[in-house]
Amino acid sequence: MKQLLKPFVLSFIVLFSCTEDEERQRVEDLSIIQSILEKGITVDSIALDYATMYRGAYGFPAIETIQIEKFIDEDEILVYYDFISHSRDSLYRYIENRDREHHEQGIVVDYAIKYNDKLESIIVEVKKNNAEFIEFTDNSEDITLIPTPEINSQDTFAKYEFTIEEFTERYQNSRFPEFCVLSFDKKEEVSNTYAFRVTFKFNNQKEFALNTSPIEF
After folding, report:
1. Beta strand pairing call for 134-135 and 61-65
2. Lowest mean pLDDT: which of 11-15, 31-35, 38-42?
3. pTM above 0.90, yes or no
4. CA distance 217 to 50
5. How far apart, in whole angstroms, are the C-alpha atoms of residue 216 and residue 213?
6. Which of these, 181, 168, 172, 173, lies nearest to 83 by C-alpha position?
7. At what angle do helices 2-39 and 86-104 cross, to 10 degrees?
8. Which residues sit opposite 49 in a β-bridge?
9. Is residue 184 within 8 Å of residue 134, measured between CB atoms?
10. Of the candidates 103, 204, 18, 24, which has an alpha carbon nearest to the alpha carbon of residue 32?
11. Distance of CA 215 to the CA centre of its chain
12. Which of 123, 163, 117 has the alpha carbon at shortest distance from 140?
């Protein structure tokens, strides 16, 4: 009888230990979420990529990556920016799980998401061939910013083009975007080399400056 009890006791101890670990992890996760809810979402970094636009489902645009040397044959340069936020991703996962539970119970819940980092201004500069960097004015129509879905996601979107000023006002003092592209379509008869430098400035004295590689266009 004692021999038969040993595996059962061992299994109970292991099961109890796992349950205890899972509960501790759950409490830690809830503590992190509570901290995000109180403090607000922050931006950790911004990733840069190169993109091209194509027609997706039902004729709406979608974006995918492009090799930088192929811009010579394109009608516009698209520089893609991914605003990376681990706190936002954690909160979205939590909300998704809670929504699943609420859906099973027939409950609909709206969430007010607080942002600790808020976009304040954007500086866009261009360097043509061997010249110095020149800053675009905030209302320049030579360059536009377009909110997009995640690159290569195949998600389509409504294409809304904003000047620097309009794009900043869209997010200013409230939040920051998830993804966007910078569009430049002033192609000349003779190809030139362009390099762009974009500086995103946030409250809390946080800023990110991103430089493209030289782009022949």
Report:
1. unpaired
2. 11-15
3. no
4. 13
5. 10
6. 181
7. 120
8. 80
9. no
10. 24
11. 23
12. 163
* Amino acid 28: pLDDT: 53
Q: Which residue has the tokens 């007010």?
A: 112
Average pLDDT over residues 123-143: 96
CA dist., res. 89 & res. 41, Å (int): 9
Whole-angstrom distance, CA of residue 60 vs CA of residue 19: 48
- Which residue bears the tokens 């936002």? 88
Amino acid at 73: D
Q: What radius of gyration do the chain's Cα atoms show? A: 24
Q: In this predicted structure, what is the pLDDT of residue 195?
A: 98
Residue that the structure tokens 């080399």 belong to:
193
How far is the CA of 200 from the CAs of 13, 23, 56, 171, 178, in angstroms?
A: 53, 40, 30, 12, 13
Give the chain as a 3 state SS string.
CHHHHHHHHHHHHHHHHHHHHHHHHHHHHHHHHHHHHHHCECCCEEEEEEEEEEECHHHCEEEEECCHHHHHHCCCEEEEEEEECHHHHHHHHHHHHHHHHHHHCCCCCCCCCCECCCEEEEEEEEEECCCCCEECCCCCCCCEEEECCCCCCCCCCCCCCECHHHHHHHHCCCCCCCEEEEEECCCCCCCCEEEEEEEEEECCCCEEEEECCCEEC
